[in-house]
Design a protein that fits this description.
mainly alpha; Double Clp-N motif; about 65% helix
Length: about 160
């Protein structure tokens, strides 16, 4: 993970490190989408946590489902390697960051359009419609972008 650490901002790096730690805790061979989404869901005051809570999903229930479906307690690798889907999500997040450091919201937005990822399966088994969740994510990210642009305009020297 050290080779990619320089592309992440503070919140993005926290997500990646937390996902690695969760994958170690749960067990597995690679850091997967389920670990990323689980880490983002555990960030209090984060968009993912808010959206999951709004759909009735509790972090503990999400954690239990991830362990149920993906907990490979017998296999605990070094876990510095990402699954192919996580690599794809990181690439998409870098594109969305548009030359800036990749942050939490870029990673969340990068999940959109990844229809076969394990994280979507977990959401489905928790009774969440993954398509509706994605629509909510896009709406929340759109609002967050507007707020960031407004704050940036307040700091503009033109004022």
């Amino acid at each position: 993970m050290n080779s990619t650490a320089s592309i992440f901002g503070e919140s993005g790096a926290q997500v990646m490190l937390g996902a690695r730690n969760l994958a170690r805790e749960i067990g597995g061979e690679l850091i997967g989408t389920e670990h990323l989404l689980l880490e983002m869901a555990g960030v209090s005051d984060g968009a993912t946590e808010f959206l999951l809570t709004a759909t009735g999903v509790k972090y503990d229930d999400f954690y239990e489902k991830v362990v149920k479906y993906f907990g490979y307690a017998r296999k605990r690798a070094d876990l510095t390697a990402f699954s192919p889907r996580v690599k794809k999500i990181i690439q998409r997040a870098r594109f969305l960051a548009d030359g800036e450091l990749v942050e939490h919201h870029h990673i969340l937005e990068a999940f959109i359009g990844e229809p076969e990822c394990p994280a979507r399966m977990v959401l489905y088994h928790l009774g969440v419609d993954p398509n509706r969740f994605e629509q909510e994510v896009l709406a929340a990210i759109g609002q967050e972008k507007l707020v960031r642009e407004f704050v940036a305009s307040l700091n503009s020297p033109d004022l």
